[in-house]
Amino acid sequence: MQNILVTGASGQLGAEIIEGLLGMGDVSLVVATDIKEPSVSLEAVPFEFLDVMDADRMTELIKNYKITQVYHLAALLSATAEKNIDLARKLNIGSLHHVLNIARDLNLDKVFWPSSIAVFGPDAKKDGTPQNSPCNPTTVYGITKLTGEQWCAYYHRTFGVDVRSIRYPGLIGYKTLPGGGTTDYAVDIYHKAINHEPFTCFLEADSHLPMMYMSDAVKATLDLMQAPADKLTVRTSYNISAMSFSPAEIADSIRKTYPDFEINYAPDYRQKIADSWPNSIDDHTARNDWDWNHSYDLDAMTQDMILNLVKGKV
Ligand code: SER
Question: Residue 79 and residue 192: Cα distance in Å, rounded?
Fold first, then answer.
């Protein structure tokens, strides 16, 4: 049975991953940690304040709760990282070192660490970006994620730490709001639509990015963590893919339910970040190694987002 500590539990992914973990047969305890209180109720699990840059406190919690696995989700996302270079470096890479060292020294069973499609920069193939495309990221966030991937591979190779990782695309869910990312518009747009308000997008109409519905992202994460270690051929981070769309295309999808939905465009500094990333991702390595498969395309996601956001309003 596994005792799991989740960092960044109050972020966009935290509550969703915790719910997924609680449904697994081999999980006896999940401990949620963050520097801020969770925005959604995490009643079923203990919550502890943790600044992930504090290695001593992290060690203490891991020892006290007899933790066997860590899901280290705490990070600054792309837009925020661009404005806070030093913090992004300390938080995104420094805290990963604490987790990897603790995993090695306390012999933890497994670690999950999220990477991102942001590891790819303008040198990568734009459409269907392969697993091993040249990366050369041009954003602060991308540099931290690529560096982190290499450290994960090093700790696995050198110390046998079983750390596993996914390059998430933009994640879209109805339970929590994202914060500080370039793909956040694709969540905010649904909140405007169900309130019959127009949406001003900070990206251009035809800016395509790789995206994924939250339930697929949670499934991918739990499936990767369950996969037999000898099946995994990638110890940096796996490309995974579900859909790719532009702001104009998500607006069209929303208009199938709200025909009068209006979108206008006011691109800002985040356009440059988006322009440096792939349009779409090739993920056949993940599909071959651990049977990754997505369920939601754009229209299926739109229907489910609208249904749940409307339900939450009434
Ligand atoms: N969704 C993230 C961001 O926009 C990318 O991994 O920063």
Answer: 21
